[in-house]
Every structure is written in C-alpha cells, then in structure tokens.
C-alpha cells in the first residue's frame, strides 16, 4: 500500500481537527488531516460559546467566521414554567470575547476546514482511519472510497474523530461516563415565530414543566430556521419505544408538553426527518501519551445543556498543539501535566454545572428572583465558556461556590 510520512496525523476534520491542523501548520509542522466524510456534512452542536472565538482567532480564522453570515449570539436564556431568566455574555467576570454565533455545523465545519486548507493544510476527504499500530512511531492504516489501503507514518496522532471515537475504540480506552445515559431527539425547523419578544440572539433552554430532568434547546439560525431538540432519559421521551419509531412524532409530542415552546412554535414546520442520539455521554481512561492525544469529543463528552462541546474541542486543540510543538521541537513533554490536567480543569468546571443542572440546584440558582450581580457575572463567565479562568472563584472552587449560592437561594 502507498505510504505517507508526516509529523502529525489528525483523524477528523471537525472543529478540533481543523484548528489543530492550522495551529501546527503555522509552526511549520508537516500535518495531514484524514476525514472519512465529504464536507459539508451534518453535525449536531450548533450553539457556540464566546470563549471559542479566542481559539478561532489563534488559528487566523476569525475574519472568515465573522463574515460568513452566521446568526449573532450574545447569551443564553432559560425558561421554567412562568420563570424566565437570561445571561448576557458581555456582562461577565472574565475578559475576552462576549459574543459568538449560532451555526449550522455543516457550513461552519466546512468553513474552518477550507480556511485550514487555504493556509496550506493537507486534508484528505473520503479517507477513513481503520487501524493503528503504535510501534516506535505510530502507523495508521486508511481505506479510501475505492477500498484501497494507504499507510500514514507519523510521529504523533491527534484523534479529532468526535463521536467516531477512533482511538478510544482501537486502543481500548473507552470508559463509561459518570453521567446517566440520556438521549436527544432533534431537527431543524422553519420556525415561523411571530412573537416579537423572542430573542434570536440567544439560545433558549426550556425546562419541562412537570419533569425538570427533561429540557429543550431552541437555537435560531440567521435564515428563519432554528435547531430544536429535546433531551431526557430514553424512557422519559414519550413515544420513544423502538428504534424505528416515528421521531418527528416524539419531538412534536414533547414540544407540545412545554406550553411556552408550544405557543412559540405553533406555526413551525419540521424540515428533515428528526434524528435520535442515544447515550451521548462518553469517557476515556487516557487522554494522551507521548504518541497520541485525544481532542474534543474523542475524549470525554459530558452533556449538551451548556453548549460547551465545540469550546472544549477547540480548547483541547489549542492546548494539545502547544504541548505537541514542544515535543516535536525535541523537548520532553509530560502529557498528563501539560495537557490532560489543564484540559480537565475546564471540563470539570462544566461537570459541576451539568450535575447541578440535573439535580436542580443550578436551576434553583438561576431562577432565583434576586441574584447578586457579581455572582451572576462569575457564573456568566462559565456559561460563556471561560471555564479555565482560575481567577474566577466559581472555576477554582466551582462546587463549593455553587453550593453556597444554591444554599442562599433556597433559604
Ligand atoms: P466532530 O465535529 O464530531 O468531527 C469529527 C470528524 O471525524 C467527523 O467529521 C467524522 O466524519 C470524522 N471521523 C470519524 N471517524 C473517522 C475515521 N475513522 N476516519 C476519519 N475520520 C473520521 N456543542 C456545542 O458547542 N454547542 C451545542 O449547542 C451542542 N449541542 C449538542 C447537542 C447534542 C445532542 C450533542 C450530543 C452534542 C452537542 N454538542 C454541542 C457537542 C458537539 O457536537 C461536539 O462537542 C463537537 O462536534 C465536537 O467536535 P469535534 O471536533 O471533537 O468532532
């Protein structure tokens, strides 16, 4: 089989793969990105957080993203029964961008990949990574669409394969998530929203009126369409009985159970066949060694409620490439200390908030009528994605601080 020799082989051209490739290429490293599909291709994960704009800027892709006509986003709104609260991401504790976009990932991911390609990155579409050998140097076996094998020899492999989870599967790194298994049913809609008070610049997270474990996202796009989805344990989603059940029916039934959404989306039309993602949370036993590192969703994935996925994916690309450039330049890297631990700091901050969302402590805190403005700014920083900012007490002591706020609200 023909073979290719590079410094770094990257599996997957999603946000983590494209950004990592760009950052490495800018430092003169020989990179190849191996992508199974052709772009544009659908992906879930459409609401970005402002923090990821800093990484997009590092990769010299900010102008392209800003000029693409994506829906502007400046915050998040939450609704439960008659309570409504919103976070304005520009009013936050941590400095850095306070706005971002809501994007159809098919277009967004293609844009990032095209930008990387324009910068000179070699992306091979229609190439699926099938196996890996980790000898002195990693060796990947690919299959192209003609069924032909190719070999890539690299000094290092970055797995940016998202839910493909290529290295966790091939190297037996899969570990069950600490979070219970939840499922999502979602679709794009022509929303036909007429309510003048509806804020298209924010993601709307609505809580089911009778079961706070179930929630919905509504993510407006710039062209009169929205992404809408419902999340819950499989048995909580009415009509989700068999794998071939009518998912449009499940989604519509669930939407109609939340009076606010039912009214807002009274004239909405589903655009595609609704999709189901079951048991989306995932974890791994090892994030990196001196031969490979897992980026984004190929590592740990928690939960979509705070839209943290793409931000974590881009942060992981930024952190891993920094350590990798050092290693390729001949220095010793301690991957646990220099990559896994710092990345997990932010992931663990989000974990605190995800757990507190589902046990309702966080919901009590945000729907409290009289929040302390300084505390709200600190929490807002985390919701804007700045979950690695140690100067924020709600990051450095995320659980204790959040417990204190919850206690105050509940007393
Ligand atoms: P991906 O974007 O998934 O890219 C992986 C790429 O690898 C794909 O293009 C795939 O084709 C390729 N690949 C896979 N296998 C192979 C192989 N064998 N060989 C070659 N290539 C391969 N995140 C947000 O930020 N905001 C949200 O609002 C949000 N909502 C979500 C809602 C739900 C229900 C879920 C489950 C997740 C959500 N996420 C959200 C998370 C988000 O989807 C992911 O975190 C994000 O897409 C991860 O990006 P990535 O670069 O790691 O991988």
Automatic annotation (TrEMBL):
PANTHER family: FAD-BINDING PROTEIN, SLR1998 PROTEIN. Residues 6-332 form the FAD-binding domain. This is NAD(P)/FAD-dependent oxidoreductase. SUPFAM superfamilies: FAD/NAD(P)-binding domain. It holds the Pfam family FAD_binding_3. GO terms for molecular function: FAD binding.
